[in-house]
Amino acid sequence: MQFYYPEVLYALVLLIIPILVHLFQLRRFQTEYFTNVKFLKKISLQTRKSSRIKKWLILTTRLLALASIIVAFAQPYIPSEKNENSSIETVIYLDNSFSMEAIGKKGRLLERSVQELLESDLINKNTNLFTNSEEYRAITVQDLQNITYTGEQLDYKTILLKAKTLFTKDTSVNKKLLIISDLQKTTSPQSPQDSSTLAIYAYKQSAERKENLQIDTAYISQESIDSKVLQVEISNSGTASQTTPVSIYNNEILLGKSSATLAPAASLKLSFPLSEDEIKQGKIVIEDNSLEYDNILYFSLNTIAPIKVCSIDKEITTFLGRIFNAPEFEFTSMPGSAINYTALNNANVIIVNELQEISSVLNTTLLKLASENRTIILIPSSTNLGDTYGSFIKNSGFSGIDSVTTKEKFITNIKFQHPLYKGVFENQVQNFEYPKVQKSYSISSRSNSILEFEDKSPFLIQSKNTYFFTGALNLKNSNFIQSPLVVPTFYKMALSNRSPPLLYHNLAEENKISLPISVKNDEVVKIDSKDFSFIPQQRNYEERVEITTLELPNLAGNYSVSGDEAITFALSYNVNRAESNLKYLDISEIKNVRTVEGLDDFFNSEGYQTKKDTFWKWFVTFALLFLLIETLLLKYFK
After folding, report:
1. Over residues 365-386, mean pLDDT
2. pLDDT per residue as tens digits for the range 57-104
3. Are 599 and 477 members of one domain?
4. What count of other Cβ atoms lies within 10 Å of the Cβ of residue 575?
5. CA–CA distance from 621 to each of 13, 32, 106 (Å)?
6. Which of 29, 303, 309, 616 is the most buried (most CB within 10 A)?
7. Same domain, yes or no, for 100 and 157?
8. Do 549 and 428 share a structural domain?
């Protein structure tokens, strides 16, 4: 016979206490004198003898009852001969993704799982354990206490592959993998390649409440040319309607507040107009009692660098300079006979204004810039165009110039649904003073026209990020630059190559971020927060720095980018919202996986069962029996 807790047997020393109590009676007897004691002496001898027997019987029953209780707590068992020499390897996967923040019957799922592992015999079994972010060989109590949430999440296939690296290659031993997770639906489960030597167990952690409100995303909407709007998307994954306040902060300054009521399994979009050009420490906050990580979305809005517009002109013009003015734009004008290619290569928008010919060098440069997503705007000359111009038009994705029309045409058709005019007009204007053109060029393609003449032929047409006017815009040929259309048309064309600023990045993903800052060749930028800083992978270019982040940072929040000369740029990171939907796998769908209701079930499964039978219940029964005998002795034994 062996004991689970042999150290409890030291309590048998306590048996000396009732022995001492019985041997050294503290009660004193007083002698009473009678006139005739002949018969009293005889009765006294008989009573004293029976009392002594009763005392020893009671002592014996008390000792046996106390001893039975102590042995029961030591939990005696008989080892099994079959499993005495068996060998087993154990690997445990503990899901520490943010979906384990859900509340179960005994608290949050991850905290409760860690507590159960601490209370089990895990440490004495030389067990390997891994999470989504860390792995521990021969796990210790300290390792378990240091496990925290992570934005990473392993799918079922990756769990099996990673567990395989923690098992030895010895095929003679039994291998057991225990998956402790809420088993969210990330990918379809797959069976292990070699299920004969690997036994897989699943201990599913179930949330009591399947209701959850979450902030899905936030972005800047630029539907209007004169406003900046923060769009916030919130969703409800539960089966009941919920209402929550929604607050926007810059650090601790409240920028806006609203209330959102969401129907079951529905989403909602809220709009917050922004007057600030820069928000370094932004966050969006809602109130929800389920998952905590998706109640806050960190974001940052940096001052946007001016768009560099470069115009190559045949003659000096002033209307472009009036449209592209500071601080939103940085406008540069140069004659076609003296092109500054350095300025051209740094420009975001290039306007080729009424040139007749395009040299081979300019042709190559423009095509290269167009491939880099720069915006090219072509305004032809009112005089005949050369062959090089026509060749460049074809290379830019247009069908080519078919003919020249000298008949006056009115620009009457506006494609209001085109992204160029989205948010420009409150209503679709059908009657206003239409601009006109005296001489224009005809092209056969009409597939992506933006403005059209009265005969449906295109006046402004687009091919990817290149725009082509089919007529010159000088006042001798057209009054277009005097019409209300000219400002929104050129303004939105300049903005078309610039995407709305990305407000945040996701943790545990590779993020390549281009920072519009200039640094010296030997200067290194670093990312800082209140708690730590690190140097990301980076590459320096002439007017920008490209950084790459993956493993760091590992905590959601607002960060700043700084260099040797205190360059500041704000970055924000959040946990991916994929786990907020609270959709779980059905264990019955997973092949070759056995379910357990707790760690006791797992560690008492085949291979761990090192006992034939336990006897603690018998000893508890014996203790009760001896206490019953003692009671009967005290009541009926005279």
Report:
1. 89
2. 888 888 888 888 888 888 887 765 544 435 788 899 999 988 898 888
3. no
4. 25
5. 22, 45, 32
6. 309
7. yes
8. no
